[in-house]
Specification:
2 copies of one chain form a homodimer.
Chain A (H helix, E strand, L loop, with lengths): L20 H21 L2 H6 L3 E7 L6 H21 L7 E8 L5 H6 L8 E6 L12 E7 L33 H25 E12 L2 H18 L5 H5 L10 H11 L2 E9 L4 H4 L3 H20 L1 H13 L1 H10 L6 E8 L1
Parallel strand pairs in A: 1-2, 1-4, 2-3, 4-5
Antiparallel strand pairs in A: 5-7, 6-7
Helix pairs in contact in A: 1-3, 5-8, 6-11, 10-11
The complex binds S-adenosyl-L-homocysteine (2 copies).
One S-adenosyl-L-homocysteine (SAH) binds next to helix 1, helix 3 and strand 2 of chain A.
């Protein structure tokens, strides 16, 4: 399972563009910290000494609208900062925004929904953010929200029935008691982040910054409700258990310790801020299980169909929606756990 | 009719990606001249004094594969030139290639067919080339093949039944005897090119170059066979004549004089080379009318369906294919007219 499955494209009822409120909340939860990073930490004068263009990249942008909101916010903070630093409105630099996602992302939808009144030049950048995407020293500000927790692949131990990391009856490392499974996920995350940080270290200018936002608990545990719907189908005899055992969601939600470890190992970035936050969530507060699950469907459908076929995928999605009551109860009980991780790095 | 209709996307039987041999021949016909422009005229040392990245843009790239062939050729010529100038293989600069087309172009297909072994960073740039797309002074080499003859819109005189420029019984300016029609097309072309040159003058660095390749006669007159199929339908009473009268292809094929005029009016570029050439054409030589018409269909289908609906569009396409004999005869007789225009400009 090395191939990647994109968020649902287009703008239909199960599309990501119509069902990304969850990611929107995560983004909103980090807004203030993104602004602070720019206003308080970014060496904008150094950056502008060599060129009058500011280059910003959003890694894992999907199809919008969140990426447009995020980038507008970044541009506004940069403009405010410039005003403070230069004390003049002349000579405002030009902004270039690079929207990155996998080659198979639906860039057509992304491009067609670009804001008309944007104050930046817009570019699409197809390719994995685990590798190089830009020339050396060309990016001033890098942003990524709800994306770096996607692993590049499922570690092969998880696919081997004879390995101690065979993930029986579960679709993720969260909720299993098998420490081998957890270790395999952690190791893959570390490898992926090593690649990501190496690439960004080349691409980001000295004094430039990168902010990374990842959902932590809220969103993640919800996925297990999908898992339990799949197990229901196994128990009813409609689905072969080995198919569930061999299915593993390619996501790892890093802790502050995980992040510190990979950043320090890379050595090119200083950690300017690292924080677990517990922003208010309307979706969680209202225990709106249905919206939450449809959001998850927009994210996972491609993956699930690939592994189980569309009939089982449809059935598992439908059954999970039927668990709304149970999910709502769970959400209420686990409210305080719905946190997210914010990291601001500066290129040394 | 201000909205634009893209080349057929995807990779189906009538897609542009499968049916662009005509444009490929035009491209191939200009290859030597593109290389000469780079080797003989480009001030590459000046360009690299400020940065180690060379930025290249292809305007009106469509979905490939021609754009990939063109860009590979440009990169190769630049590498060869660098080798001559610097006499060393160290410190090869990085290449950034920007693929531009209308927002509604099928960028998904473009991105999915990017060459795996490319030696450049690839970007998509959605938007019209009649306006700004890049920051000031950021492009070193601009390329456009078979694209700038597309007008941004049909001049409104052509849409007014009472105007002397009402284009009765014809779908283009080529072949009409109505000079008002021709003038309206010329005026629109001049307006569009003024916008294009103004934008590029801001974006291209001093000493940077732009090469423009346009098909001239070969391709263009073929479109009139479509026109006559439409008139057949009118004569049979299946189609209302006013629908044909009000349909005008938004393309103008500039002469060297047209190009000289707009470039001189703009004033920011020197004309390094301007040439009408008569490259050998396999399609024309073999009088392969069917391939030619299917190529044209890949280009025009969207436009025609929008105006006439898909039933008439299908019928007119099918009938034009039936004219293969007639088209072949015409092609043979007009072989010497199948020329194309090459222009190389340098930013002063
Ligand atoms: N290795 C990788 N390279 C580039 N994009 C990736 C990636 N792994 C995952 N992604 C992308 O990350 C996105 C996560 S969805 C989040 C989208 C957006 N940032 C928002 O907050 O709404 C998906 O579109 C997915 O395709
Ligand atoms: N104003 C404009 N801005 C950007 N692209 C344009 C344009 N007008 C036309 N085009 C694009 O120009 C392309 C012409 S087809 C030629 C494609 C390619 N250069 C080749 O040689 O094969 C189409 O994809 C069309 O969408």
């Amino acid at each position: 399972m090395t191939t990647f499955f994109p968020m649902n494209g287009g703008d239909g009822p199960y599309s990501f563009s119509k069902n990304s409120q969850l990611q929107r909340e995560v983004l909103d939860g980090a807004k203030g910290m993104v602004r602070d990073a720019i206003i308080q930490k970014l060496d904008i004068k150094i950056m502008l000494s060599s060129s009058n263009t500011i280059r910003i990249a959003d890694f894992g942008c999907s199809v919008g609208p969140n990426t447009f909101i995020a980038m507008q916010h970044v541009v506004q903070a940069l403009k405010d900062k410039l005003l403070q630093v230069t004390n003049s409105t002349n000579n405002i630099p030009e902004f270039q925004i690079f929207f990155n996602d996998h080659v198979i992302n639906d860039f057509n939808t992304l491009f067609r929904s670009l804001p008309i009144d944007r104050s930046y030049y817009a570019f699409g950048v197809p390719g994995t953010f685990h590798g190089r995407l830009f020339p050396s020293r060309s990016i001033h500000f890098a942003h990524s929200s709800c994306a770096i927790h996607w692993l590049s692949k499922i570690p092969k131990e998880l696919l081997d029935e004879k390995s101690p990391a065979w993930n029986r009856g579960s679709i993720h490392y969260i909720g299993t008691s098998n420490v081998e499974v957890v270790n395999a996920y952690v190791a893959q995350f570390e490898k992926d982040m090593e690649m990501l940080l190496n690439a960004r270290a080349e691409e980001i200018v000295e004094g430039g910054m990168m902010v990374l936002v990842t959902p932590f608990a809220s969103y993640t545990r919800l996925m297990n409700f999908f898992g339990s719907s799949l197990m229901d189908l196994v128990n009813e005899g409609t689905l072969d258990e080995s198919l569930v055992d061999s299915f593993n969601l390619p996501m790892y939600f890093p802790s502050p310790e995980d992040m510190t470890k990979v950043v320090e190992k890379n050595g090119c970035f200083s950690i300017e801020r690292m924080e677990l936050t517990y922003p208010k969530s309307k979706l969680v507060e209202e225990a709106d299980a249905k919206t939450l699950m449809i959001n998850l469907r927009a994210v996972l459908e491609g993956l699930i169909i690939n592994h189980f076929g569309s009939k089982i995928a449809e059935e598992a999605c439908a059954r999970t929606i039927l668990k709304s009551e149970e999910i709502s109860t769970w959400i209420k009980a686990n409210y305080e756990k719905s946190c997210q991780l914010f990291v601001a790095l500066k290129r040394k």
